[in-house]
Structure formats: structure tokens, C-alpha cells
Amino acid sequence: MRYNISISGEKWVKVGNSLADGPRKGEKAVLMGEHRCALDDKGRLNFPARFRDEMGESFIITRWLDDCIVAFPQTEWDRVRGLLREKNIVKTRDVRRFLYAGASEAAPDKQGRILVPAPLREHARLQKDVVVVGVDWYAEIWDADAWHGMTARLDSGAIAAAMEELEL
How far apart are CA 165 and CA 133, in angstroms? Predict the structure, then answer.
């Protein structure tokens, strides 16, 4: 919890929840940071504890762009599904195929591990070393070498141009 001191300096006052306490009512938590993990021989990944509370008891993992895997909290998966349902099925069929064919429910076990199905491991070329990255309302699961290669390609000039385009 966050506390703020009053002007007199005599009393602490509760002003709201911190991210560690979960989002405030009506707000979504922000997933951020990169976490190094390892896949075991059975294809299980110890999903970062920091993300598990925000993802819920179970969440959806599926193929994603840039040859990685995405993990959606159930509420966000439902939102994506709703957006796809609102659009013309002919225009969305390839996106639906891409997302739904690879989708799997992930429910962390008591040790916090999730099973990453073989087709998803193959899609993302996951080996032993993995990086889980928080990207606001979803997380991405990357092979560590692919993540390092992708971040090495990020040019500050290109990022500056993209930020300017977005008016950030």
C-alpha cells in the first residue's frame, strides 16, 4: 500500500493500492519487466511470480508476432475474442486461425510452472533459456537468444520516430 504524509508531517494517510497489492477497482495491472526463466525437459516453464497474480488462476497462451508466444489474462483474451467477433469473418479468418489453432489454457501448478505445448515451443523456437516480458496488459514468452537479437535490432532513432508518430 502507498501512504502519503500530511503537510504537518504528523500523520500517514492511505492513498491507494500499489501494483503489488493489485490494481485499483476498475484499473488493470501493468505487466512490465523482463524475467529470465528456464524450460525443463517436459516443456514446463516457471512463470514469473510477479505476473501470476495479475494473470489469474489460468490464462491463455498462443502464438504471437515476431516468433514469440503471448500470454493473455482471461479477461484480455475475452476482449480480443470480442474484437474479432465484431469484425467481418472473412477479414479476420487468418488472424483467428493463427491465434486459436495455437491457443492453450495455462494453469500454474503449485510450483508456478505452466506447460508450454510442443507446437508453441516450436513456433517460438524455445530452447532451455527463456525470457518472459511484461507488455502492459499481456506478457510475451521468448527464446532468450531471439529476445537478445530482437532488442539488439531496436535502434533508438527508429524508436524515437515511432514515439513521435504516436505523439509520446
Answer: 24
Q: C-alpha grid cell for residue 62? A: 498462443
| Residues forming beta bridges with residue 71, ordered by sequence position | 61, 139
C-alpha cell, 80: 480480443
* Element housing 12 (H / E): strand 12-16
Dist CA 108 CA 50 (whole Å): 13
Supply the pTM of this predicted model: 0.80
Helix, strand, or coil here: 109? coil
Q: Are 120 and 69 a contacting pair, CB within 8 Å?
A: yes
Collapse the DSSP code of 101 into the 3-class scheme (helix H, G, I; strand E, B; otherwise coil) and give the result: helix
Q: Name the one residue in this structure whose C-alpha cell is 537478445.
A: 148
Question: 29 vs 34, 55, 74, 136, 161, CA distance in Å?
Answer: 16, 9, 13, 8, 28
The tens place of each residue's pLDDT in the chain, 168 residues long, gives 444 433 444 443 333 332 233 344 455 668 999 999 999 999 999 999 999 989 999 999 999 999 999 999 999 999 999 999 999 999 999 999 999 999 999 999 999 999 999 999 999 999 999 999 999 999 999 999 999 999 988 888 888 888 999 999
Q: Please state, in angstroms and as integers, the Cα–Cα distance from residue 158 to each residue in 134, 136, 161, following that order.
A: 21, 21, 5
